[in-house]
Design goal:
The protein has 263 residues and is an alpha/beta fold. Helix content is 41%, strand content 18%. The radius of gyration is 18 Å and the shape is globular.
């Protein structure tokens, strides 16, 4: 039986990985939301000619566009995000509000229709029960409480907003580790096992499995790589953490540098 999925934010690394995986499945139709159709087609040439794909372009605040994108789907992958520790950021919260508003609109229009499962890209750094036992206290203080503090606050508030609607809205929170560009290594879904590094290729497949396997609804799901030691990490992967530390400890200078275009 053909299943329809919606991807919100398909030009990002995670959204692109999900799209790549779903394009390879025969039993799938895909509804894709992007802010820029041109950017999507640059990454996926001729995608607009694929009969299994429907593209929606616009602002995440355009509830009519988002409602149409998520309507009549099995699952919605919310991957709109920025991989940066920006002071007072609200990207995840804003996206959560727009997604819930769109689903609410569809629910009011068609009360008998089934609400799709929303698989939300979050982060393992907001999951202390799993992360803390594996991370030295100094590293936790340096990165989780420092380099990722604004990002984590945004994600926590977004998750809390989804939780407010759990009576009618099925959701799954994806809690990956540090995500890098690497080949697929295989993985295991869990709520207790965690890898400190994971490839985008594995994350894309993992989020689809979270949607397809009903056991994960309402849970924060971690992803353990089958071959973490083989995952290739570059020095460039540390840049967001270094910039995040600067934003946390030198917020005023970071803000000034941002305005000047230096950051």
């Amino acid at each position: 039986m053909t299943a329809t999925y919606a991807i919100l934010g398909a030009t990002g690394s995670t959204g692109s990985s999900i799209l790549t995986y779903l394009l390879g499945r025969d039993d799938t139709r895909i509804k894709v939301y992007v802010r820029s159709r041109a950017k999507l087609l640059k990454a996926f040439p001729n995608l607009d000619e694929n009969k299994k794909v429907q593209i929606f372009e616009g602002s995440i605040e355009d509830i009519e566009v988002i409602s149409a994108c998520v309507r009549d789907t099995k699952a919605v992958f919310s991957t709109v995000a920025i991989n940066e520790n920006v002071p007072h950021m609200r990207v995840a919260q804003h996206t959560a509000h727009c997604v819930v508003a769109a689903l609410s609109t569809n629910r009011i229009a068609e009360p008998s229709s089934k609400v799709p499962t929303v698989v939300v890209l979050s982060a393992g750094s907001v999951n202390p029960e799993v992360l803390d036992p594996q991370l030295p206290k100094f590293a936790h203080w340096l990165f989780v409480s420092g380099a990722l503090n604004y990002l984590n606050d945004d994600l926590k508030h977004a998750e809390a907003y989804y939780q407010l609607h759990k009576a009618w809205l099925p959701f799954v929170f994806a809690h990956p580790a540090n995500i890098v560009k690497d080949v697929a290594r295989g993985f295991e879904l869990s709520t207790t096992k965690y890898s400190m590094a994971l490839s985008y290729a594995d994350l894309g497949v993992a989020m689809v499995r979270m949607a397809d396997e009903g056991e994960w609804v309402g849970k924060a799901v971690t992803i353990k790589s089958n071959d973490e030691k083989a995952i290739k990490q570059e020095l460039a992967d540390l840049v967001p953490l270094i910039k995040g530390l600067y934003a946390h400890y030198f917020t005023k200078f970071w803000t000034l540098g941002r305005k000047m275009g230096a950051l």
